Amino acid sequence: MNIILAGTGNVGINLAYALKKRGHSIIQFAGRSNNKPEIIKKFRIDYTCRLPEIKKNTDLIIIAVNDDNIPSVADQIPDFGSVTVVHTSGSVEMNVLSKFRSHGVLYPLQSFSKEKIIPFKKIPLCIEANNKNALRKIQDLSDQLSDNVHLISSDERKILHLAAVFACNFTNHMYAISEEILLKNGLPPDLLKPLINHTAARLDQMPARKAQTGPAKRNDKKIIEKHLKLLSYSPKLQKIYKTLSDNIQQDKQ
Amino acid sequence: MNIILAGTGNVGINLAYALKKRGHSIIQFAGRSNNKPEIIKKFRIDYTCRLPEIKKNTDLIIIAVNDDNIPSVADQIPDFGSVTVVHTSGSVEMNVLSKFRSHGVLYPLQSFSKEKIIPFKKIPLCIEANNKNALRKIQDLSDQLSDNVHLISSDERKILHLAAVFACNFTNHMYAISEEILLKNGLPPDLLKPLINHTAARLDQMPARKAQTGPAKRNDKKIIEKHLKLLSYSPKLQKIYKTLSDNIQQDKQ
Questions:
Q1: pTM for this predicted structure
Q2: What does the alpha-carbon distance between residue B11 and residue A240 come to, in Å, rounded to a whole number?
Q3: CB A172 to CB B213 under 8 A?
Q4: Interface predicted TM-score (ipTM) over 0.95
């Protein structure tokens, strides 16, 4: 496939490597800066900062920019009719691209960085399209990139994003609180890493609900009281400890 | 070293494998059941269920039983004077063993199962002892088992346990909530695994506080409102979402 990539950020660069590896031609990069960014130079591919003038002879245009910039980037790209235009965002609806006769979404459910290019083979790709031809095009491409392709509607993507806030953002906040508690008491945060990794890896063996352990799960009131006392310096942390322990106890089967 | 292991559970069996691997002699297992448990038979080692009659010619007795049973097990073991007695618990104070002239703690900070014996090399071992000789004995042994040995007091172990509740128990509860949200909407929980693993692995690169992302971190009120609306079926989940988002926002630098 001939592909144009609009966006030279973390997602764009990782996608570019994955697409090249599968033998696709990226015929042009489009970005905001007037000069070709350093990271693009490696690819020896045409670069433009003038979106209205991007190449026409392409099969697919991938918009891989920040959520807030998708509408303005889409505005500047001409509709060539047979060219399918997709964005890569988890939280933006597909219909932000509705001016293109053929459009869709190709959302890789992973965090990317330019510093560490990662293989796409296992990354869940959530795809959506406004018609059968566009879907076939996006699906064929996605199946080549990953073994983990899912047809997900815009509404389902919102749910996915909400679930990710719990499983990733809030989880990271739990790590941050535990770091803070350890550092405040002169203990190295590294101590908990093996247990943290174990907790994440255990999801391969059983659902999280079944894997739940700890004082709240076994209704160990003595320990819960002791912990709340240790946290007496921070009513906020006490509130979090209580709220989550209550919820775990209500979940008990 | 000649070692007696009191306890045939997950910790005991994993310790037995690790000790044997480093060339130590486990001269006896002690357990509750009258008959030698199946899992012990593999070791071809003497077994007893009568603690008061355990062998005397040993350097170390390791009590690896449930927290609640440590006092009664300790009660039944005679004090041989030069024999050091340790327990392996994260939340029980060392002085529960104070009847032994030489006593301490050897707490491996990891979850174990009999089904999957894991290597000790990277496991943090938290040790404590009531005198220099006991400490030297426990430290020498621990250094042979792991590269990750820490001198941790009983008070520090309490803090460690509290931090682990946040980093592991509460984290697992976040996974459970996200599973519930996905399943309720007919989406496969596996979708989030790559992101979950990424969130845990990122701790090797930066402190969790620095790695924080998500709507609360970037103060994205529109998304937060949308998420609370999606959770309107569960006031409990709304409360958790709000409590944690508020705390992340207060953490903002």
A1: 0.87
A2: 31
A3: yes
A4: no
